[in-house]
Amino acid sequence: MKFSTLALAAAAQVASAHYFFDTNVIDGAAQTPGKYVRGTTRATAYNPIKFSSNPAGDIRDGSFADGDDIRCNQGAFSTAGSTEVLTVAAGSDVTAKLGFGAKMEHPGPGFVYMSRAPGDDVKAYDGSGDWFKIFEEGVCNPSADFTRDAWCTWGRDTITATIPAGTPDGEYLVRFEHIGIHRSHVNQPEHYTSCLQVKVEGGGSGTPGPTFQLPGGYKDTDEYANFSIYGGLKDFPMPGPAVWDGASDGSAPVEEEQDDAPVETTPEPVEEEEGEPAAPAPDADCSAMYGQCGGNGYTGATCCSASSCKVVNDWYHQCL
Ligand SMILES: [Cu+2]
């Protein structure tokens, strides 16, 4: 039956397409989720953070890219005290890993930022200070599909960065982020982020920078948030400050050349947004076809307006 095949495909996408970082990797071994990576209290941990200007129906758990949740994900600060602090040597790598076997199968860049905790007490730090960028990755395979596997992070479940050797000793938040940009052409970039708590030792005397703050550093008017991946390969305007060179004062960075993103005129393909219906449910009290109808922590409607509720996984029950 054609319908059920399509429904199964949609369900499989829901299970694999959204994700969150819940752990880090040390010498190849994934740590217990939440041991060094702050947890989240959001109802649907795997869902993205979008801008408050986006349609209400596309906002998940009240998380906003222009709100505090963009720092380390919703509720992360409430888990700071119970999250351990990982001691890392400057010059060594840190790696964050997605939970539940998920892979980054949205197109878009990966980033790693750091922010020093006041008083070098990261368990008491809310992330409201200055952030500097230590790593970014965009397109690795320009000959591949720009809407999919051209992006470095495609199909991976980790992001890795090197703590710059010049980083001063102290306690920091290390913020890992993937941004899905398949809907940036309609101003809906999807931010996936979590923070690792670290204590840097053996560091240097560099002055990290340039910096930005969160929220505020990402705006819905930024080029990356209005960029179309459709119509072929083009330069992507990386959001956030330039990557710190690891040594000098970053206050006067060499500006990276920014191409003006061409206005996209080709028709956009119909967007598949997994489990996120474009139209409101006919019965406003129940979830629409492909909408969520259950799962751990889910608080919305558990009935389906034009279908029945199926268990996709523990986190996601869907109207199919
Ligand atoms: Cu998505």
Brief sketch in words of this structure:
The chain has two helices and 13 strands; from the N terminus they run αββαβββββββββββ.
Task: Write the topology of this structure.
Elements: H1 2-17, E1 21-26, E2 29-30, H2 69-72, E3 86-89, E4 93-98, E5 110-116, E6 131-137, E7 158-162, E8 170-180, E9 190-201, E10 211-212, E11 292-294, E12 309-313, E13 316-319
Parallel strand pairs: 3-9
Antiparallel strand pairs: 1-2, 1-4, 4-7, 5-6, 5-8, 6-10, 8-9, 11-13, 12-13
Bound molecules: copper (II) ion.
Copper (II) ion binds next to loops.
Account of the 3D structure:
This protein is mainly beta and 320 residues long. Helix content is 6%, strand content 23%. The chain has helices at residues 2-17, 69-72; strands at residues 21-26, 29-30, 86-89, 93-98, 110-116, 131-137, 158-162, 170-180, 190-201, 211-212, 292-294, 309-313, 316-319. The chain has a 6-stranded mixed beta sheet. A 4-stranded antiparallel beta sheet has the order 2-1-4-7, with no helix packed on it. Strands 11-13-12 form a 3-stranded antiparallel beta sheet. The two termini are 14 Å apart. The structure holds copper (II) ion (CU). The site of copper (II) ion (CU) has 8 residues, from loops. It is an enzyme of class 1 (oxidoreductase). It is found in: Secreted. It catalyses: [(1->4)-beta-D-glucosyl]n+m + reduced acceptor + O2 = 4-dehydro-beta-D-glucosyl-[(1->4)-beta-D-glucosyl]n-1 + [(1->4)-beta-D-glucosyl]m + acceptor + H2O.
